[in-house]
Specification:
This is Small ribosomal subunit protein uS15. By secondary structure, the protein is mostly helical. It has a domain of about 60 residues: S15/NS1, RNA-binding (Helix Hairpins), CATH 1.10.287.10.
């Protein structure tokens, strides 16, 4: 069974984006990446030698960091809001 269903994606986009179909805004992308990062982190806790997943996790963290930097430059208030709602350290 897939951990990230279409319904879960729509829920994330609806909660953090402008609408359920808002897949392109930085906030919705950051929320999606954060959900995937938490899932992969839990997977790696029980599968320590899954290096393919470890590499995918590092790539996702880098992508999320790039989006956060972009949002910080474009609109600091939106950046602060997404950091606060997702409980990210920065």
């Amino acid at each position: 069974m897939a951990y990230l269903t279409a319904e879960k994606k729509q829920e994330l986009f609806g909660q953090y984006g402008k609408s359920n179909t808002d897949t392109g805004s930085p906030e919705s992308q950051i929320a999606l990446f954060s959900y995937r990062i938490s899932h992969l982190t839990n997977h790696l806790k029980s599968n320590k030698h899954d290096f393919g997943t470890q590499r995918a996790l590092l790539r996702l963290v880098g992508k999320r960091r790039q989006l956060l930097e972009y949002l910080k430059e474009v609109d600091i208030e939106r950046y602060r809001a997404i950091i606060k709602t997702l409980n990210l350290r920065k």
